[in-house]
Every structure is written in structure tokens, then in C-alpha cells.
Specification:
The complex is a heterodimer of chains A (about 110) and B (about 120). In chain A, about 0% of the residues lie in helices and about 50% in strands. With about 110 residues, chain A is an all-beta fold. In chain A, strands 2, 6, 7, 8, 11, 12 and 13 form a 7-stranded mixed sheet that branches. Chain A is globular, with a radius of gyration of 13 Å. With about 120 residues, chain B is mostly beta strands. In chain B, strands 2, 4, 5, 6, 9, 10 and 11 form a 7-stranded mixed sheet that branches. Helix content of chain B is about 0%, strand content about 55%. Classes of the chains: A mainly beta (about 110), B mainly beta (about 120). The interface of A and B includes residues 51, 55, 106 and 107 of A.
């Protein structure tokens, strides 16, 4: 199985500031034949199911604000939230869909400082 | 608007079998193009993918649960189900059903619509 490791486990950022979450996979999730990274990001607010934010490592799902951006390639990825808003308080998960079984990171809790 | 809703008992005894159903509205589970997954979240923990079933009824399960999982499709009622046998306390979790989008091939799925989740306690 591909192990997904996120850092940090929790993060406190001031409103309007930038938050960056890291995700590392135990093997590359870059598929050479199409040069795509099989990596998604989800947001889970308290008491709610996860919500798909980003796929292909950097493509925002429809309706996701552009303050959310994804980057990275191979085995190292980042989720950046620029200009943090109060409604962005949540736990964020990365997920690889390169191979089954699909696996998620342990989550990063994003809070307001 | 696609909506999914889990239903089933909230309390199950050890060694018994868990049965959950996910009713889908706003999309047809037999129309093709999507797969239908179950994912669970242990209390205060991360997410574990359990498996998927396709619109044709083909299924694939996480090997970590292989032998205990069965998923079925009920196209007449636009719903799909999960059965998990030989339960232990370690199976206590919130169980989510989710629509799964095939990104490149059947083995490359993301989860774009989720149910609200059903808490199942094994005790």
C-alpha cells in the first residue's frame, strides 16, 4: 500500500495569512504515460463528510475558491490556502488514487491563531 | 444535486455482521461513468477506503478487509449496500458512502459526493 504522510498534524494561522500543508507519499504517484499526479485533497469540517477540493494535485474542483491551490509532483505535494478565512477551519486530507487500495493521509487540522 | 444517505443499525454486537445501505438521489447508480464506494473513519482518526462497486455490479475491496466485505447493487431502488462480517470493536467507525469518479481508469478513483455518514458502534 502507498502510505501518505501529512505534516504538520495541526497548524494555526492568522486570518488573512497563508497556510501550507504538506503531503508525502511512500512512492511516486506520478504516472509517466500522461505526466499526471494521482493526488487529491479533501476538506472536512466538524460534523461533515469530506469535500473534494483538488484533484490531479493542482486542479480545483468546481466551486472551490481560488484561495485553495495545490502543488508538487512525484511524491511531495502541498495544499496552500492563501488569505485564510474563518470558514476554512477544518481537517485537510490528501489521498492517492494511483493504485488500490486508495489511501489517505492522517489529516492536518487547520485552526485560526 | 447528487445526494447520498446511509442507513442501518447504529449498534451491532461483536462477531455479527454489519449491514448498511446507501440510497442515492440525483443520479442513477446504473447509468455508468461512476463507481460507488464505502469509506470509514474511526473515531477521531483518518479515512480508510473499504471498497467500491461498479454500475455493472463488479466490486473491489481493500485487501485489509478482504473476506469480510460484500457490496451489492440494487438498481431498482437506486441504492447499494455494504456487509461487513465478523465484527470487532476495531470496526467501530463512521461509515460513509461516496460516489467515486474514475479519473483515468477504473483503478483511479476520487470521491466527489459523500453521504453524511453513519456511526456504527460494535459493542
Amino acid at each position: 500500500d502507498i502510505v501518505m504522510t501529512q505534516s504538520p498534524d495541526s497548524l494555526a494561522v492568522s486570518l488573512g495569512e497563508r497556510a501550507t500543508i504538506n503531503c508525502k507519499s511512500s512512492q511516486s504517484v506520478l504516472y509517466s504515460s500522461n505526466n499526471k499526479n494521482y493526488l487529491a485533497w479533501y476538506q472536512q469540517k466538524p460534523g461533515q463528510p469530506p469535500k473534494l477540493l483538488i484533484y490531479w494535485a493542482s486542479t480545483r474542483e468546481s466551486g472551490v475558491p481560488d484561495r485553495f491551490s495545490g502543488g508538487g509532483s512525484g511524491a511531495d505535494f502541498t495544499l496552500t490556502v492563501t488569505s485564510l478565512q474563518a470558514e476554512d477551519v477544518a481537517v485537510y486530507y490528501c489521498q492517492q488514487y494511483y493504485s488500490t487500495p486508495y489511501t489517505f493521509g492522517q489529516g492536518t487540522k487547520l485552526e485560526i491563531k | 444535486q447528487v445526494q447520498l444517505q446511509e442507513s442501518g443499525p447504529g449498534l451491532v454486537k461483536p462477531s455479527q455482521t454489519l449491514s448498511l445501505t446507501c440510497t442515492v438521489s440525483g443520479d442513477s447508480i446504473s447509468s455508468g461513468g461512476y463507481y460507488w464506494s464505502w469509506i470509514r473513519q474511526h473515531p477521531g482518526k483518518g479515512l480508510e477506503w473499504i471498497g467500491y462497486i461498479s454500475y455493472t455490479g463488479n466490486s473491489y475491496y481493500n485487501p485489509s478487509l478482504e473476506g469480510r466485505v460484500t457490496m451489492l447493487l440494487d438498481t431498482s431502488k437506486n441504492r447499494f449496500s455494504l456487509k461487513l462480517s465478523s465484527l470487532t470493536a476495531a470496526d467501530t467507525a463512521v461509515y460513509y458512502c461516496a460516489r467515486s469518479r474514475s479519473m483515468a481508469a477504473v483503478d483511479n478513483l476520487t470521491f466527489d459526493y459523500w453521504g453524511q455518514g453513519a456511526l456504527v458502534t460494535v459493542s
